[in-house]
Amino acid sequence: MQLRDDLVGRIEAGEFPDAFPGEHSLAAEYEVSRQTVRMALRSLRESGLVSAERGRNSKVLAPRIEQPLGGLYSLFSSVQAAGMTQRSRVLTLMRTEHPPAAAQLGLPGSEPLIRLSRVRLADEVPLALDHVWLPARVAAPLLEVDFSHTALYTELAQRCGVHPSDGQEEIDAVALGVEEAALLHRPTGSPAFEIRRLGCDRGRPIEWRETVVRADRFRLRTEFTPQEGYRLRVDRPVDAP
User: Fold this and answer.
1) 230 inside domain
2) For residues 89 and 119, is the Cβ–Cβ distance under 8 A?
3) Which pairing describes strands 65-68 and 218-221: parallel, antiparallel, or unpaired?
4) Same domain, yes or no, for 174 and 85?
């Protein structure tokens, strides 16, 4: 545990940016047995701090952003809670029409919407590609916002008097397409989560969001108790009989 704790401190200090030392090197440096090194490395791998690929040298892994299931969360807040710097590269902020998003919001297809598209970054590394549509009659003041370093829900509350508090999400495992992969700096076909969210303010649909998040930087979490148990809804695929 002493060896593990010392290595954690060195990892947090950014001492191994390119490669993590192997068993022989660590055993010699710390003057301990390889068995002691293996036990320390096993703990680091189980904690997700270093990689554990057979036949390859270990490397320090970037921290994952953890999101709760069953609650309306802010990616902005989750990145900051992980001790990382949140920034967004805004791709689109405009008034537009988008019939599919309008339908999700329970609006006519011709209803004006505000569209916000961003690449979300954590410590300057692309994490997610985020597209949001909101009713223009409510969210038009957002057109004046610089979303490079602020949370959508914060601006909705301050400028529009809207406080999303409930809704629903669907999450699928997907492979990144060519355009998505380029924006997220990942190889085409890399695993990702696709998250579709309908956010509501006291039951009134206010936000339709489509987000693609890198699977190597994102984790989903849930909780259960003996009293309430754990309830997971599994929908059949669209093409299922």
Assistant:
1) no
2) yes
3) parallel
4) yes
Please give the full DSSP string across 58-81, using - where no structure is assigned. --BPPPPEEEETTS---HHHHHHH
Are the CB atoms for 131 and 183 separated by under 8 Å? no
Rounded to 10 deg, the angle between the 23-30 and 2-12 helix axes is 110
Least confident interval from 13-17, 72-76, 133-137, 147-151: 72-76
For range 17-29, the mean pLDDT: 85
Q: Name the amino acid, one letter, at 223.
A: E
Q: How far apart are CA 154 and CA 151, in angstroms?
A: 5
Structural contact between residues 11 and 49, judged by C-beta atoms closer than 8 angstroms: yes
State the DSSP code for 158.
I
Would you call 80 exposed, middle or buried from its count of C-beta atoms within 10 A (0-12, 13-18, 19+)?
Answer: middle
Give the CATH number, domain containing residue 94: 3.40.1410.10
Kindly state whether residue 178 falls inside one of the protein's structural domains. Answer: yes
Contacting residues for 9 by C-beta, under 8 A, at least 6 apart? none
Instruction: Specify if 168 maps to a domain.
Output: yes
pLDDT confidence tier of residue 227, bands split at 50, 70 and 90: low
Closest CA to 185 of 229, 121, 130, 138: 121
Backbone angles phi, psi at 165, to 5 degrees: -135, -15
